[in-house]
Amino acid sequence: MRVGIGTLVMRCLACQAEEWRATDASAPLALLSEVICLGCGAQSSCADLALQLPLVPEPAADAAE
Ligand SMILES: [Zn+2]
To answer: Which of 9, 13, 34, 38 satisfies CB 3.0 to 4.6 Å to 23 for a cystine?
Structure first.
């Protein structure tokens, strides 16, 4: 699964993979959920991953002059 906020997708720090699985598949995914990278097996939390995301607002489609 992919984990993201809005259009931003969280990547693994180690291998840059975007696919994750929850350590507890029965629990709903939350900000503090632990996830495991499908690429390299690194474990992280959604909160840790969210901290790396650049807080860039989406460009408005009609912003160009
Ligand atoms: Zn990884």
So the answer is: 34
The end-to-end CA distance of the chain, in Å, is 38
Question: What spacing in Å lies between the alpha carbon of 43 and ligand 1's midpoint?
Answer: 8
Higher-pLDDT residue of 53, 38? 38
HEC string of 32-60 equals CCEEEECCCCCEEEHHHHHHHCCCCCCCC
User: How remote is the CA of residue 56 from the centroid of ligand 1, in Å?
Assistant: 24
What separation in Å is there between the alpha carbon of 8 and the centre of ligand 1? 17
Task: Please state the pTM of the whole predicted model.
Answer: 0.69
Q: How confident is the model at residue 65 (pLDDT cuts 50, 70, 90)?
A: low
